[in-house]
Structures are given as C-alpha cells and as structure tokens.
Request: fold
Amino acid sequence: MDERALRRLARDADEQHREAMQTLHNDLAQAHFGSSDEVSRRERRKFLARAAAGGAVMFGATAVPLSTLLAFNPPAAAQTTHSESPSQEDIALAQFAQSLELAAVAAYRAIDESRILSAAVGETARLFRRHHQEHADALGKILTTAGAEPATQPNAALVTLVRTNLQNARDENEVLKVAYELEEGAASTYLLAIGRFESATIAEAGATILPVESQHAVVWGQVLDLPEGDYTPAFVDARVAFDPATYPVS
Reply:
C-alpha cells in the first residue's frame, strides 16, 4: 500500500475515533450511577438504539451495522437487565478492558521503538496509540464515576506476549502482524464484553470503542494485504477475545 492511501485510511480512522469520543464524553457528562429504575430504563433504551440501529463498523468502504456483530450472542444482549448501579462483575470487566487499553499503548510504544517502520506506518502506529490512551482514560473516568478504582498498569500478560512477538519480528510486516492481532483481540474482547455488562453506561462505552478498534484492525489488514475475509465482520470472534483468566489485571 502506498503512503498516500495509508494516510487516507488513518485519517478516516481518526475521524471515526474523534466522533466516537465526542459521543462518549457527552454521555459520560450526563451519566449518574445510582439505583433509579427510570434512569436505568432510559439509558438502556439509548444504548440499544445506538448499538442495534445507529452504530456501524467500517470495514474498508462498507458500513456494517453493529447489530450484525452483536448477533453472535443475541440472548445475552436481549435479556440482560441493564442498571446504573454497576455490579462488581461490571467493574472487574471494565478494569480488565482498561488494562488492555494501557497494554495497547505500551505495545504501540514498543512498535514505534522498533525503528523499522516506514514514515506513514510509524505515524499511523502513533495515532492508534493515542486512540488507545484516550479509550483507557475514558474507561478510567467511568470507573471513577462509579466509585471504583481504575486500572493503573498495563495488562502485564498481554504486554509480555506482545514484546515476545515483537522480539521475533524480522521486518515491518511481521511487526504489523503483531499490531493487527492486538487490534483483532481487542475488538473481539469488546464484542464479548458488551453482551455481559449489566450497566448500560459501561456497555455503551464498550459499543462506542469497539468500532474504532475494529477499524484499526481493518487498516493493518489492508496494509498487510490480508485476504478480505480476515478483516471483515467474521474476524470479530469471541474465540479470539482476551480472557481475563489468562491476562489478569495487574
């Protein structure tokens, strides 16, 4: 892929990220964790409307409704009672997600420090690192608002895995394969998580972040010239999600 095409893809991903973060910040400004059933019902309706109807993930030039991605587990999405009093399970899963975001920041820093990236690829890697940092910050704000402790350290097991894979990478393509697999795992983890969250506010945050990290995987998939089927909706698969049992929060 030539540098002009990559920079165009990166700009598109950044625009999607900025729009998503604006929406998320607006929602967080209005979020109030409590026990009000009416608040819970209202937030649940808003989340489901966005996730099932309004949300879309960009795969190349194709917009795929988020409801298509949620279809892997419709019973959980349909039957879970969302509330604005996050359970301990919600909090633990949000902390886990934040630790993954911090690990992605560390991973992209290591990728950048490999010094074997071309100019446009390096710029894109640094851009995606900023996206992950902002996602981590947003999750930290949600946890703090809920009266919980945010994750403060990158997920150690994931950082170790990425560093090991980078040590074995011999060229730019092998480095980017590490980045692609990181984004693939992150997007799949959010897909799994949003079907499990009970809090509508936390679930909505996951549904807002998911399309951005899916788009990261799409960008790297195109740079690597992977078969299109590798970075179309089929890649977002709970089977490749990061398991908290394997990657415990530090």
Summary: Confidence is low (pLDDT under 50) at residues 36-41, 47-83. Residues 3-240 form a domain with the Ferritin fold (CATH 1.20.1260.10). Strands lie at 56-59, 62-65. Residues 75 and 195 are 9 Å apart (CA to CA).
